Amino acid sequence: MLIRGGRIIDPSQGIDEVGSLLISEGKISWRGETPPQPDYDVLPAEGLIVCPGFIDLHCHLRQPGFEEKETIATGTRAAARGGFTTVCCMPNTNPPLDNRATIDYIKAAAAKEGIVRVLPIGCISKGRKGEELAEMGELASAGVIAYSDDGSPVRSSHLMRQALEYSRAFSLPVIDHCEDTALSEGGQMNEGILATQLGLRGIPAAAEEIMVARDLTLARLPGARLHIAHVSTEGSVELVRRGKEKGIRVTAEVTPHHLTLTEEEVIGYDTNAKVNPPLRTKRDLQALIQGLRENVIDAIATDHAPHTEMDKRCEFALAPSGISGFETALGSLMRLVHDGQLALTTLIAKLTGEPAKIINYDQLGTLKIGTPADITIFDPDKEWVVDTKTFASKGKNTPLAGSVLKGKVMATIYEGKLVYKDDSVKIEVR
Ligand SMILES: [Zn+2]
Q1: Cβ–Cβ under 8 Å, residues 10 and 51
Q2: What distance in Å separates the CA atoms of residue 354 and residue 350, rounded to the nearest whole number?
């Protein structure tokens, strides 16, 4: 297939130019202005952006154990609609992904039912209980790309230290859900005046920052690799910045919702705006964007957390946390580009080459010749209304339902195969 005449942006090679790409046998085989011979199907990309397929370091596919919320089949279809060709799934399933059999199961299910690449993350502790380390060597040889107890923090400093120590042998990062539950327990939203007005118990910024500070201290261990998940506060950005300045091997991610929405979404008690860590203030949001611009924050990850409608249809305090994020990620992030807060190439780098580096995959997140043809094609200016009925995800839980976003994925190609296209894209068959 030939992708014709798009604006090709590949930050990993410093490319931003109008041209065409040729795909053969699942790989990118040619890039240039005038294609060799017209002997292939053509995807007309004039006026569209053509970039490496997005990589999501943090999502919840819910399988096994919570198939009513999402499955590998529905989750990867939602990912494809969002422009993601690689998704890293968190191990807080039932059973949790803490041994070889569960990782083998995810890989087999992904090969059979998935339509994009699924890379599993293994647990830090057995059963995610925070008591005893999981078999990290066994998990590494089974093919996990990182370790995390996401959904729960690792309370014990000793256990976190051990995890950072052992993970070095496999050169894999530890992905850190930073939350001091002694401070966050019972919390429903960001702590502040608004929480008081709404009568909801707050979660202070300190609940996150104390853990970020602790684990940066532990990560001084030579060779350890710490990755901070879903950074949400100005203070955390500051701590990661100082950690990097001191030479600690730390990376960090931020979600589209923490970059674009504030605690005010909770006014009206919309349970779809309940998320952990909570949506914060305008000031935090500005610090997060600044952190991205200055490469204090390395990657954007969705933390796609689907729930059923029944899960969320209850009083605020009882609702589970999480936002269904794959299918609105690009559209909401493009607001930052349209507002002049983030350069388009920076946004693309944070969704492609940068996350690839964190998981040590130099063949992904790039359009280099010979690499897998994982390609996302989007219209930066197309306006569309978020209609959760059209979601491929089982999770319709988003505070963005009904809102207008500007910027839409038009086609997603995974290993040379078209796994999603907008109805308006017409393939010219040879
Ligand atoms: Zn988390």
Answers
A1: yes
A2: 5
Residue 35 confidence (pLDDT) above 80: no
- pLDDT score of 34: 82
pLDDT (tens digit, 9 = 90+) per residue, 388-415? Answer: 999 999 999 999 999 999 999 999 999 9
31: helix, strand or coil: strand
What tokens does 68 get? Answer: 């009513």
CA pair distance 236, 288, nearest whole angstrom: 9
- Which protein residues have a CB closer than 5 Å to ligand 1 (ion)? 150, 177
Please give the distance, rounded to the nearest whole angstrom, from the Cα atom of residue 170 to the centre of ligand 1.
23
At 326, which amino acid appears? Answer: F
> Ligand 1 centre and the CA of 150: distance in Å?
5
- Looking at the predicted structure, is the pLDDT value of residue 118 above 80? yes
Tell me, yes or no, if 303 is annotated catalytic.
yes
What tokens were used for 81?
A: 């609609």
Q: 2-10 and 15-24 as β-strands: parallel, antiparallel, unpaired? A: antiparallel
Out of 303, 311, 374, 379, which one is annotated catalytic? 303
* Residue 175 CA to ligand 1 centre (angstroms): 9
Confidence category of residue 286, pLDDT binned at 50, 70, 90 = very high
Q: How far, in Å, is the centroid of ligand 1 from the Cα of 177? A: 5
Banded model confidence at residue 216, pLDDT cuts 50, 70, 90 = very high
Centroid of ligand 1 to alpha carbon of 245 (angstroms) = 25
Q: H or E stretch including 181?
A: helix 181-184
Distance 315 CA to ligand 1 centre (A): 22
Left, alpha or beta for 351 (phi > 0: left; psi -120 to 50: alpha)? alpha
CA distance 6 to 410: 12
User: pTM, whole model, 2 decimals?
Assistant: 0.98
Cα 371 off chain centre by? 22
Per-residue pLDDT, averaged over 255-275, amounts to 98
